[in-house]
Amino acid sequence: MLEFRTQGFNGYAVKYSPFFDSRIAVASAANFGLVGNGRLYILGLTAKGIVAEKWFDTQDSLYDLAWSESHENQCVVAAGDGSIKLFDISLDQFPVQSWQEHKREAFAVHWNLVAKDTFCSSSWDGTIKIWSPERTHSLLTIPTHSCTYSASFSPHSPSILSSVSSDSHLRVFDLRTPSSASNHLTASIPLHTAPSQPPTATNPTTYPQQQQQLTSTTTIPPSESLTHDWNKYRSTLIAAAGVDRLIRTFDIRNPNPRQGPLAILPGHEYAVRKVAWSPHLSDVLLSASYDMTCRVWTDGSALGVTGGRQQQEQKLLGMQRGGGGDPLAFGGGRELGRMGRHTEFVMGVDWCLFGAEGWCASVGWDERLLVWDVRAVMGQ
Fold this sequence. Notes:
With about 375 residues, the protein is mainly β. Helix content is about 10%, strand content about 45%.
């Protein structure tokens, strides 16, 4: 495990460069992001450890960042004053472009992985904005009417993006549709809906009562959703998490958005701040939480339909007998391991795209960046 100290600045987000396996960027803020300056670190992984190649100070806290997909030296950040800034790390001190359109804190930025010439941002002002590095103003503004903590383009389409907000909803937008009154909205999924499952239990006569019992135990009141991520292999699968401590996965093809999640992964003791699907394995995701841990999960899809169904039936039978583990678990997924070396809230995680699968980086309010191997914590 490698470590770098962001002294005086608390980490909020970390991203590996899509061009270099040895370059990492960290967005950070002084005084836990409540008041004070921000700093963008550009770090290099060397034989002597992690070294700071360059850093840029900003007037307000930095909450998120994204590497350009078209320019190896450019990085965009989201700031607490609502500004979006584009830095070129081959230059010194100042951003090469700055946009000031958000009315409140800009909390997320994400580069379009397919078109590569646009990126999006979301803000507490209840809007998502789409930008081009070549333009001095935003290309499009999409209202969500709710404090939007995370926005992201689909890695499978240049025109589909999604967001999660404080109103406990996952929204999907398709820019190819007419804007009209819906503002390109194609799906609005309530994250807190209890899961449903078709009657495939071993005993169909008692299954409705079992399912009703399961649904009653998995009903969760609405809460703020803080993070989400698109699966890199299954183009319609999204994972989302937030204040209620649960990670859920959804298939956006579902014609009934109130049918609930495909899987529910309980385990974190406090709010989940970040989730990230593995770039190497379709069923594995990583999470960071205020409980000071990073955890690696499988969503259960690797077990197949039969395996997930059998596990769910065992759970239902266990509930009837007064046991059966966590009543909130659903879909056959489970925790594979955890890393607990952080001593404060863990705010960001990211996977390395290169080399042996499993390397990742995490940052937290303990002023530390940790680079570690997920395979080393399996089973812990």
